[in-house]
Design brief:
Layout (H helix, E strand, L loop, with lengths): L17 H15 L8 H15 L4 H7 L5 H12 L10 H20 L4 E6 L5 H13 L8 E7 L2 H9 L4 H4 L4 H4 L13 H4 L2 E5 L12 E6 L8 H14 E9 L13 E5 L2 E4 L5
Parallel strand pairs: 1-2, 1-4, 2-3, 4-5
Antiparallel strand pairs: 5-7, 6-7
Helix pairs in contact: 5-6
Length: 285
């Protein structure tokens, strides 16, 4: 019993029916592009049950109604966080950053030094480690990057993790794992514990749903979208790959996750250039 004398739901008081699971799965696919097989039902039930207990909601039916209620944006964000896993760290899959440093950035930096425009995108940036890793790599190659027309965009569908990324605060043990050649770029954090402004000012963060049309006018020279498409079914993956291909400049580079594979029409243009690394060849050459 709670202090008010009402019955507080416990772990055994929830039962997610097949119909309710299907409703959640359809909602997640429609709004987030997520594909959830029936085998995910126990996991979804367990995670949602904890949320319902915290909210003192007694059944899944009432929870489903809240997804279209007055606080729908907040509720949907919470559901997305429950259904996905934001596991990341600085310089994850380091071979991508070696390719960025050695092959991708040098000609782009020269282009920027001649007055050109360079844009890099971390799509599905989670808590921000990826775009900050891109920024460290950029500064190592081009210390004067802030004075040039080089910008990094970090986006994620989840506003909670975007706010975390904007805060730029990370535990000491996580920062200690950064390779020495890059850690020199973060020798001293700001008094409030944030990563230094030299990194932060290179990055703009925003909330973006990858299954919706991209709102950009300009194109990108490199896109990182790793371990995001694993949540999508094959048709949605192909749609996203094509959207990235169209958002890349000719010769632009796409980095995807180690367990993801290129497929669909975009595969005619995105040619393998390394481990889960693709270069945009619009003519299909």
């Amino acid at each position: 019993m709670s202090a008010e004398g009402t019955i507080t739901p416990n772990a055994d008081s929830f039962s997610l029916s097949d119909q309710e699971f299907e409703a959640i799965a359809q909602f997640a696919h429609k709004h987030f592009g997520l594909a959830m097989a029936a085998s995910k039902k126990p996991l979804v039930s367990s995670r949602l049950a904890r949320k319902l207990r915290q909210r003192n909601i007694t059944n899944f039916k009432d929870y489903l109604a809240s997804l279209d209620g007055p606080n729908a944006d907040e509720e949907r964000s919470g559901l997305l966080s429950l259904l996905t896993t934001n596991v990341t760290h600085f310089f994850r899959e380091p071979h991508h950053f070696e390719t960025l440093r050695n092959d991708v950035l040098p000609p782009l930096v020269e282009q920027a030094r001649r007055g050109g425009r360079v844009r890099l995108w971390s799509a599905g940036c989670s808590n921000g480690q990826e775009p900050y890793s891109i920024a460290m790599t950029l500064l190592d190659v081009c210390p004067e990057a802030a004075k040039l027309d080089i910008k990094i965009l970090g986006t994620d569908i989840d506003p909670v993790v975007v706010r975390h990324a904007q805060a730029a605060k990370y535990p000491e043990d996580e920062l200690a794992q950064i390779d020495a050649k890059y850690s020199k770029l973060v020798p001293k954090r700001d008094p409030d514990g944030r990563l230094p402004e030299s990194l932060r000012k290179l990055i703009t963060f925003g909330v973006l749903n990858l299954i919706e049309p991209f709102p950009f006018k300009g194109k990108f020279d490199a896109i990182f979208c790793r371990n995001v498409a694993i949540y999508f079914d094959n048709p949605t993956q192909q749609k996203v790959w094509s959207a990235f291909q169209n958002a890349l400049n000719p010769g632009g580079t796409l980095f995807i996750g180690h367990s993801e594979r290129m497929s669909g029409p975009a595969a005619q243009h995105l040619k393998t250039a390394g481990i889960t690394t693709y270069v945009n060849s619009p003519a299909g050459r």
